[in-house]
Amino acid sequence: MLNRVENACSDAERLCLREISSKQQLRATLLPIRTVGVQGDKRTYSYVAAISSEGQPDWEDLVFLAKIIPKVEASIQIAV
Fold this sequence. Notes:
Blueprint: H1 2-8, H2 11-23, E1 26-39, E2 42-53, H3 59-72, E3 76-78
Parallel strand pairs: 2-3
Antiparallel strand pairs: 1-2
């Protein structure tokens, strides 16, 4: 997984990921449902992941993760 992060993210994005992971402990769970979207003339199906935290989440961090995770693994979408 680290190789995928290295290949998919810029240096600035990796630095931001390190900062997010040092602030609070987040947990990701792959849900047993898939989303339906449209790309071009075809339907696309992606798995859904939920991110949870012990305390109050930092919404800006979650929005950042929602953009980065599909870059690393295209078959997963995050809903914030």
